[in-house]
Amino acid sequence: MSPRPLGRLAAAGSALTMAVTLAACTPHPSPEVAVRSFLLAWQDGDHARAAAYTTGEPAEVEAALSDVHDQLDLAGLRFGLGPISRDGDSATAEFSATADLGIGDPTWEYTGAMPLEWGPDGWRIAWSPSVIHPDLGEGERLAVSYEIQARGQILDRDGVPLVTSESVTAFGVYPGRMDDPEAGVTELAELLGEEPGPLLDRVRSAPPEQFQPLVLMRGRNVDTALLEQVGRISGVDTQAVEVNLTPAVAPAVLGEVAGTAEHRVSSRVPGTYQAGDTVGLSGLQNIYQNELAGSATTQVVSLDDDGEVIGVLESWQGDLSGEITTTLDAGVQSAAEEAVGVMPGNGYVVAVDVSSGELLASAAASGDTTDNGGLTGSYKPGGAFTIVSALAALQSGAVGADTEVPCGFETEIDGERFTNPHGQTGFGDSSLSANLAVNCAVGFADLGAQVGPAALTSAAADLGLGTGWQLPLSANAGEVAIGGSEAEVALAMNGEHGVLVSPLGMALAAAAVADGTWHAPTLVSGQEPETADGSALDPGALEAVRQGMGDAVAGRMSSLNGPLYGEEQVYGQAARTEQGETSLHWFVGYQGGVAFAVLAEVDPARTLTGQYAFNAAAAFLSAMAAGEAGEGLPEGPLDQAESTGDPASPTGPETPVPGAEDPLTEGTGAEATGPALTEQGIPAQ
Question: Selecting from 3.40.50.1010, 3.30.1490.20, 2.60.120.10, 3.10.450.50, what CATH number does the domain 16-138 have?
């Protein structure tokens, strides 16, 4: 590969054209003409012409000036002429130099001086290496040295490191030991699947006897055959280095770090990075790249003929790498990751701090570094939305806490028929809290006309849904767009129309019910949320909603209030709904200072064998209560149809708790276990 072109460069001074014209008629007629002509030729990269204005051996001067281009890996070079002092047949000319050291490097500015002599051919520059730079002596050369920062750590709220240090293999070179640097680096790049250009940029300007790490590769991708191949290239070597590379938890939140061949970082990542630097590709590693990676300390140095550094001509101190403290809680995160392990497919557990909205955990069953669906997903909430609907009914005045709200067997609204599961009838007169406790699809559908779309939208906004908040990472605040017909409002009351949410959004809604105020979410400690907290919610309405959520757990999921799951009472709502060809299982609730949402994506063919969001919620609370993830948890998914004890509890008593086989089937829940649409609490077709 040929050296990088210097491009179009600025003229050295306003009289440059005149000086060059004059020089063509009279060789070197004055010191100024000689200096200007020399600098212009050097600036233009015409090193042979520049050598003609010196007293040195033309080939040696040409080679020395060309070497400077490679030694500094110059992207641009500009000169300005300073004062010239003359004393008889000798003179001294000062000049300014501005050297662009290339992508990712600073611009080096310095002042030089060159002696001139009068001779038979007029004025010439008296050649020595000091013409290039005043501090260069015979046999000395320039180079650019980099001192790379160790990558910083991402911490949880208590200072627990969340990224593990990993030993990786650094493939690099000793430039001075390479027979042909360009050919050798190109061959190395081909073996590692990298583009050679960025690697060559670093090697050209490096001190010849300093190891230059060019590509980092995880140990699992380094085999003996590869090491043997690269070992045949002169000057190539490998070294083991420790890098904060692998997320111990929350891979989609923390993100990936590159600098490795499998990511082809040199061609994929834009920005001012040298080959061998670590670069965050996703998550917090990407958002806070500058803080975590810092920047290299760059030095222009002089070397002796053995390649040893003998002087520092210029230095640019890099930014120190630092730590990022998050709001995540390592214990809560581990419990969430334990919980998603009981899901039969993909799914998410998201937990937030009730009093602040701080994100405590976000786990995906896939474990994929790109799967942040707990924050970004857009899902129908189904009957889990009755938490919002109950608040809307109370805040709008459609009902009071003590108003009788019948839970009938079925109802028809604008031609849409709503039923409760398993053909169950209602329980006579009951309160709104009782309807919430049993997730009564019919009762909430009947209230739709009295509540109306505006009040339902307003209550959703009070709980943060559809309000446009954001995190440093991409996150979905939800969408609430409810149609005006009575059927559409009835569907929306049951989370089946006009409402799409993320698990994070539902966890924040549950936190608002628990705290009395909605809090904007945060992820990085000390960083103000982008959206202000909400106003305090109506205490009376909240008390009725809390009563319904508490009764929902006590009546349909009573094992969650057992000692295995913690000392404090659990409040929540469980539901099932369909979205496309996937069955969505929800549990949304809170215990003490932690609010959480669980979403399991289940194959409809096996959705009847258990309520997997409830299973995951049980596993989450059990791990939280145990104080460490994994203690007291089952080893595999909890298919309730295959349980031998309490089907609703991973380690429950021998005698099943009434109704615990499915938290959706006791009473008249909005979702059902039967396969027909009419048995799922949504309109019959």
Answer: 3.10.450.50
H/E stretch holding 199 reads helix 196-204
What does the pLDDT average to over 34-46?
96
SS (H, E, C) 476-528: CCCEECCCCCHHHHHHHHCCCCCEEECHHHHHHHHHHHHHCECCCCECECCCC
Helix axes 539-556, 386-395, angle to 10 degrees: 150
pLDDT digits (tens, 9 = 90+) for 630-680: 333 333 332 332 222 232 333 232 222 223 335 654 333 333 322 222 223
The residue to which tokens 């908040």 are assigned: 469
Q: Whole-angstrom Cα distance, residue 83 to residue 94?
A: 6
Maximum CA pair distance of the chain?
Answer: 119
How remote is the C-alpha of 410 from its chain's centroid?
47
CATH number of the structural domain 330-680: 3.40.710.10
Residues 502, 599: Cα–Cα separation, whole Å: 9
- In whole angstroms, give the CA distance from residue 469 to residue 409: 39
The domains of the chain are located at: 16-138, 154-325, 330-680
**DSSP per-residue codes, 514-578:** HHSB----B-BTTPPPSS---PBPPHHHHHHHHHHHHHHHHHH-GGGGSGGG-SSPEEEEEEEEE
pTM: 0.78
